[in-house]
Design brief:
With 265 residues, this protein is α+β, with helices and mostly antiparallel strands. The protein is 45% helix and 23% strand.
């Protein structure tokens, strides 16, 4: 069983530039993989395996974006692309078999500026509580750096880490630690049932079949959303459609974190 812990990275100027570079190259490599896969499917009706993508972009084409990333990271990106098309192909089979009713669209290109970059656990090194994330040999040749560093969460065991995903979102960067954890089996009394009704002012109204009940207040979350909507409307006033800014990104992230923390508790 795997767990995932997300931490907000607070990068300095140099680290931010590295993260932007890595995630931008990840996005470009993703689109290169999608382009090759789409063209192969449209021309032959076949989809590439992850080995085909690794060979085509990494060995045959010597793709610049593939070489700009650490090999494990580049392979993880192309493996994800291969899984996209495998799922798409499976849905097409479902259409023929009648198990799927709506025709799916082939995977499309990533339109954002950056995308997720994944580092496998075996590529990471831990020293004095700091994790070392390797960069590609081309990066070392071009820029003179071969790695970047992020603190290791104190509550996680380094040996349990399976991968770390660098996630760009709203002009922030997060590190998602995917780790292996033991399965804990809890004893459950199936005769006890809790009914939950979702609402706004009363976020959760809960009643059990053993005579207990409680209400989780939703007014605080409602006020957070109202503040957010008013702030967005004020900032976007007299601005063109699609306007976005650092301020909008900051308040959106703040609101999302508050909502996530509330749901986690």
């Amino acid at each position: 069983m795997y767990g995932c812990q997300q931490i907000l990275i607070s990068p300095n100027k140099d680290l931010k530039a590295i993260l932007e570079y890595v995630c931008t190259e990840a996005k470009k490599l993703t689109n290169c993989g999608v382009y090759y896969s789409r063209q192969l499917y449209f021309k032959t009706g076949k989809i590439p395996s992850k080995a085909d993508l690794h060979k085509q972009l990494g060995t045959i084409q010597k793709n610049a974006h593939y070489q700009a990333l650490y090999s494990d990271t580049a392979q993880q990106i192309l493996t994800t692309v291969a899984e996209y098309f495998k799922s798409y192909f499976g849905l097409l089979k479902g259409i023929k078999e009648g198990t799927v009713t709506q025709k799916p669209k082939p995977p499309n290109y990533c339109k954002s500026v950056m995308s997720i970059a994944t580092f496998t656990g075996r590529s990471l090194k831990l020293k004095d509580g700091i994790l070392r994330f390797p960069l590609g040999s081309k990066v070392k040749a071009w820029f003179g750096i071969d790695a970047f560093y992020i603190p290791m969460p104190s509550n996680l065991d380094y040996k349990s880490i399976r991968e770390v995903r660098i996630l760009p979102r709203n002009r922030c960067f997060y590190a998602e630690f995917v780790y292996q954890q033991d399965i804990k089996i809890s004893e459950v009394d199936a005769s006890k049932v809790l009914g939950i009704d979702y609402g706004l002012n009363n976020w959760l109204t809960c009643v059990s079949n053993i005579g207990t009940s409680f209400i989780v207040d939703g007014l605080h979350l409602k006020s957070i959303n109202q503040w957010y909507n008013k702030s967005v409307a004020k900032i976007k006033e007299n601005k063109p459609q699609g306007f976005w800014s650092n301020r909008l990104a900051a308040i959106t992230e703040k609101r999302n974190r508050q909502m996530r923390d509330a749901s986690a508790t």
